Structure formats: structure tokens, C-alpha cells
Amino acid sequence: MANGTWKIARRGNAQLPLVIVLVLAVVLVLVGKAQSGLFDHARARITDAMAPLLEDVRAPLDGVQRWMSSIGNIFSVYSENLRLKEENARLRQWRNTSVVLEGRLQHYEALLHAVPDQKLHAALARVVGRTSHPFLRTMILDAGSDDGAKAGQAVMDEKGMVGRLFLTGKHTSWVILLTDINSRVPVTVAPGSVQAILAGDNSAAPKLDLLLSTAKVKPGDQVVSSGDGGLLPPALPIGTVVQDGNGLRVALLADATQSESVEILNFARAPETPPATSQLPAEAAGLKPLAPPPPAAPTPSATPATPPPAPLPKLKMPVIPSTTTASGGSAPE
Amino acid sequence: MGTTERLYAPAFLRVLAALVPLLCGLLGVFIANIPISLAGGLVPAPLLGLIPLYFWCLVRPDLMTPAAAFAIGLLQDVMSGAPPGVWTLGFVVAYAVVARQRDSFAGLSGFAAVLGFAAAALAASITATLAVLLLYSVTPSLGALGAELAMTVTAYIPGALLVSLLHHRLVGPLRSDF
Predict the structure, then answer these.
(1) Closest residue of A to B77, CA-based?
(2) Which of A108, A297, B13, B174 could make a disulfide contact with A9, Cβ separation 3.0–4.6 Å?
(3) How close does chain B come to A21, measured CA to CA in Å?
(4) How far is residue A127 from each of residues A260, A263, B12, B144, measured CA to CA in Å?
(5) CA of B132 to nearest chain A CA: how many angstroms apart?
């Protein structure tokens, strides 16, 4: 290399500035720890300014990547077609099952006057950039605060959850991926509703940290967002549990390296308000409201002011299979 | 621009030439952090800002000052999305390592020069990792750090040729060296 051929201009005699700059750098790290959003504004401004350039540069690259990937597909068209036909037939069966179950669920919800799930609004955004650093794995979207995007909102592709927004500019947003080392998402493992934390570690399959070490989870179980904390909507599909040595990981449904268009889910939990009296379960089940306590009766033979409550109607409750309890045993049936 | 012409160049051009190391460092950071990945984000981007920093810290430390290293690291922090200050500290520590051992590093050539740069890049990476580990209690993936280091060292070979060319054409040695 050229190092050996160059004459050293002069020996650095600026030791004092170096010490000062080192101290400044340490101070910057400490200030950055106290104010983690120190550079967020600058980052958002830079990304906003770069967005048109990114879109222009990405267009030919995407074309080349699609062309390259399509070369390999040519040789597997026949087998892929067979696989898709089989999968389509299975999905049709599942669709019928799902329609039946959805009808039953609506019936139960109507009986119980269940609070309906909150409607989610989604904004479609295109991926205009991806970066991979040891301290951050992110993708950049072409939707920002002008499009209603806010930090914390979930980002989904057509298969499942990709991550959540952590920084929004006017026209662009940064997504912290589920695989990122800083990502922690509360999840539920079904069946059994086991609560866990999905922790990214820069690998393709994030770790699954169970909140109760005695809870039983097996490979193949489905992982969805739990909605704990009210930051993310519940029941967003995330992935499947896989075994990794002694630990558990989650094979994600979404592929963040291939996603081109994603949905930003606008979710904000409404403040909790007490339900109206008419919405209480007793009245919803057809019972009369409780009367205020009657005054002390002068004679024991007095007729009660209100008729006795009607007997509870017999509802056919669904049979709930025994589930694993926190202590590892089975719940009593 | 030849050496004789450079001696008598207008002051404006000389100031501009003096800014070339800093501008190259900032440009390297900018290019490395353009969020477009040919490998679909599987391979981390190299620390391109380190190449001009290392090169000119050896051959023209009067132009690549500690403040310039600070500025290059600061831009790396802003553009990479890393926790604030970790790359600034990493770059300044790498600068300090190279500045203290300038004689040893400057005497290297060929493959040894690449190893010298790898040592400086390692110093920057270890410093940034320790800062994240101590302050944020997050253990970065060693695989990702190793991949970034490998990419950075690989990029040094063409990068050093390029900055060497720029040095010959635009910057040149100190007047006292003529």
C-alpha cells in the first residue's frame, strides 16, 4: 500500500486537542444516552432529502434483482405450480373452516356483548431503503408524518409483522426490524396464550424469552403480538416457534429483506371508559337490573317490592381444553 | 496539478485542497450509509469514513486533525442510526491509536499496511461495541461486527488507492517537504 511510500509530513504535535476531542466524544456518548433522540431530527431531515434520490436509484436495482431472481424460477416453474395447487386446495378447506368459526365467534360475541376489536387504519408505503449495521437493522419507507405515520406504529407486509416505526420524518420513516438487536416486542404463543418477549439479536430468527420459564411451548406453535402495553395491536401474525439448542426462536413469516410494499397500521387504543349499564353482562344476558336494597321491612310477611331475579338462562358454553398453568400442571376442568 | 503549480496556487484552491481529507471522510460516510443494499441488507456496509481518516492521519496529520475525526464519526452516528456518539468515540479512539503509533503504521507496506488499517478499524469497532455494551446493556452480534470489519478491510484496498491518487493530484505533501 501507499503507506510505506509516503513521507510523514510532521509528527502530530496536537496532543492537547486530541485529549479535548476524546473528552468531547465521551461527553457526547453520555449525553446521547440521556437523550436517545439527540440525532433523530437530523436523521429524519437527511432521509427526507435523500428520498427522491433513493427512489431513482432503487428502481434499476430492483429491476436487476427481480430479473436475477426470475432466472432461477424458470427451472422450478412446474414443481412450484404443483406446490401452489396443493396449497390452494388446503387453503380452500381452511377458508371454509374459518368462515364457520368466524360465524360462531360473532354469535358468541353478540351473546356476551363483547367489546368489538378496534378497527385499524393502514397506510401503504414502499420500501425505499435498507441498512444493516451491527447496532441497527432498519428499512426506510416513503411515508412520513404527512401521511399519518407515527413512531411506534406496527409495520406489516403481506405475510406478517416486519417491525415498528421508530423515527418519522415528513415524507419518510425508519422501521426497526423485529430482527434488530434493539427490538423487544410482547407476544403471545398460541395455543395456550403463553406470554413472551420476542427479542431481536441481528439473526434471521429472533429469540423467544418466555415470561414464565415453566410455561410449555413447542416448536410449531404460532406467535402473534399480544398487544400488552397498548403500543401494538393484538393478534398480528409474527411467526412460528422453532427449537434452537436449549432455547426457542421464532421463524418470522415476513421477510424484511424482500418486502417491497408494507402497511403501516394506525393503532391507538382509546381511553378506557366504563361501559353503560345496558351493556353490562347481566343485562345483556336478559336479566333485570339489580334494584336498590329495600328499606327495612316492618313485618316479616311483607311482599318483596321487586320480583325475584329470573333464573340464569342455560347457555351452552364451549368446551375449553385443559391448559397449562403457571406451575406446569393442568388446569382443573 | 503539479507540485510547482500547487505551491503557487491561489489561496482559495489551497484551502480547498486542505479540506480534501475531511471532505473525503464525510463523503465516505455518506456513501457507506446510503440505505441501498445490493445484498438485501444481509451484509453490513463498510466503515468507508475510516479509510481517509487512517490514510491522512499518517501522511498529513495537519489536515486530518482530531476535530476532523470527530466530525467524520459524528456523521457516521447520524447517518447509521447508531446510538448517539458511539462511532464518534470509536473514530476518535482509532485516530488516537494511529496518531500515537504513527511511525509504526507509516512504515508498513503491502499486506502489512492492510493489517495496520485492520488494527485501526478494530480499535474503532471495539470502542463502539464497548460503549453500547456498557451504556445500553446490549450485546451486539459478534458475527455482524466481524462482517462489518471484514467489509471495511476489504474496501480499504481499492479505497487506499483512490485516496492516494487524490492525495497526489489534489493535496500533496507539505511545502516543508519539498
Answers:
(1) A39
(2) B174
(3) 6
(4) 5, 10, 43, 23
(5) 8
A87, A91, A92, A94: CA torsion to nearest 10: 140
Q: B162 CB near a chain A CB, below 8 Å?
A: no
* pLDDT of res. B96: 93
Query: What domains, with CATH codes, occur in chain A?
Result: 117-266 (2.40.10.340)
If DSSP codes are grouped into helix, strand and coil, which group holds residue A189?
strand
* SS percent in chain B: helix, strand, coil, step 5: 75, 0, 25
* Residue A184 cell numbers, joined: 423487544
Residues 14-73 of A with CB under 8 A from B: 14, 17-18, 20-22, 24-26, 28-33, 35-36, 38-39, 42-43, 46-47, 50, 54, 57-58, 61, 65
Residue B154's nearest CA partner among B66, B43, B62, B78 is B43
Q: What DSSP line would sit under A57-105, residue for residue?
A: HHHHHHHHHHHHHHHHHHTTHHHHHHHHHHHHHHHHHHHHHHHHHHHHH
DSSP state of A199: E
Q: Where are the domains of chain B?
A: 3-177
Residue whose C-alpha cell is 470502542: B127
Tens digit of pLDDT at every position of chain A (333 positions): 444 444 444 444 555 688 899 999 999 888 888 877 777 777 888 878 877 777 777 777 777 767 776 777 777 888 889 999 999 999 999 998 988 998 898 888 888 887 776 667 778 888 888 877 877 788 888 888 888 888 888 898 888 889 998 888 888 888 988 888 888 889 998 887 888 889 888 778 888 888 777 778 888 888 998 888 777 888 888 988 988 877 888 998 888 877 778 888 876 655 455 556 666 666 655 666 556 556 655 544 444 444 444 444 443 434 334 333 333 333 333
Q: Burial-class residue A17 by CB neighbours within 10 Å (0-12, 13-18, 19+).
A: middle
Residues of A with Cβ-Cβ distance to B96 under 8 angstroms: 18, 22
> Which residues sit opposite A138 in a β-bridge?
A131, A176
Count of all residues that appear for chain A in the document:
333
Q: Is residue A50 within 8 Å of B34, Cβ to Cβ?
A: yes
Per-residue model confidence (pLDDT) at position A70? 72
Q: Is residue A139 within 8 Å of residue A129, measured between CB atoms?
A: yes
User: Which DSSP category does A328 fall into?
Assistant: S
Q: Which chain B residues have a beta carbon less than 8 Å from that of A201? A: 141
We find that the CATH architecture of domain B3-177 is Orthogonal Bundle (1.10)
Nearest beta carbon to residue A38 from set B84, B99, B176: B84
Put simply, the answer to whether A135 touches B83 (Cβ < 8 Å) is: yes
